[in-house]
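Notes from hallway chat w/ T.B., transcribed later so I don't forget. T.B. wanted the structure written out for a chain they're using in a teaching module, and asked if we could keep both sequence and structure tokens in one place. Agreed to drop them here.
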Amino acid sequence: MAVRLPRPHRFDVYVAAGGLLGGLLLVLLGLGTRRSDDPITLFDGPWPVLLPLTVLAGCELLRRSAPRAALLTGTVAICADLVTQGSLASVLMFTDLVYAAVLYGPLASARRIQWITGLLTVVATLVPFAVWRVPEALLIGVVVGVVAYGPAATGWIVRNHRDAAEAARLRAEQTALLAEMDRAQAVTAERARMARELHDMVANHLSAIAIHSTAALSIDDPSTSREALAVIRENSVEGLTEMRRLIGILRDTGGDTEPAAAPTLDSLDTLVEGARANGLDVHLDTAHGTAVAAAPAPVELAAYRIVQESLTNALKHACPGRVTVTLARRDGSLDVLVTSPYGHRDGPRAPGSGAGLVGMRERVALLGGTFEAGPEGDSWTVRALLPLTEGDAA
């Protein structure tokens, strides 16, 4: 199968055409790098110069796609040019091939070319001077250095700058990608947090409204309906207030409206009173209130929301009976325990989505605690163990 060479770069075509045309112009003008009576000139006349000139021009077409092959072929051509009158265009094209081989070739080849051209420059400087013992012999090393080592060193410098620029570009792209990932994660985490807050703040009021409206519709008793409507109105007003606060936080207008302070364990009494007003028989055990009061703010918020959601679930699903809320400090952790009667419920029930349990589990997981919820005998138990240490509650 025939090997298909890659198409030359447009700039390489321009370099090859310019070198060939420039060399032809020098031949027509009779300008060479050596005289016809020079001892190393084996082929006299201007026309033998065309062969190495043409080969070097062809190598320029491969300076980018096949730099090593172009340099090896060009080295043979420049050696052939030495036995003719020579052409300045051939020398210039060879220096460009050395430069391109270092810049575009493999890294190992670029290093070898550096060493080889440097060694040739040293040898071409010392050997002629040692043989002829004349200062002019040092010029041979200067010429070899300009033709071979100079382009190689220049190509190495340009390659290093190009690699550094590419590495900087890749680092910038990686930094931008990481920043975008962090932004997406932050947005996702904030949306999850707001979803938990929205559920915990409003679900309690909506559940009470749903249950009491069902009772008002199902029981034909004016006094009962009036009490149910009063509870519905109270919960709708409170729910609307909570929604307005949350919307104000989301809009972040920067005006005079301040976001509502995060609820703490000191507000549990108010929360329990509201649950009793909605028809729950709730008992709050605060025997360890002094120890609980020292809890970090994130722990207090999580404990408050867990109790709030547990009371909401009890209002929607629990059987008639006492709901017990217990908070205690044990082994450096805050133990939140909520128990409610479990079994078949005859009265009206509000639909549930399961988001409340997910939200409670997420809150506990963010603090590095443990969470359990499920039936235990004739009770539904919700237990959360929240670390009280600053590092765990951060």
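Follow-up for T.B.: The first strand starts at residue 281 and ends at 285. Might be a good example for the class.
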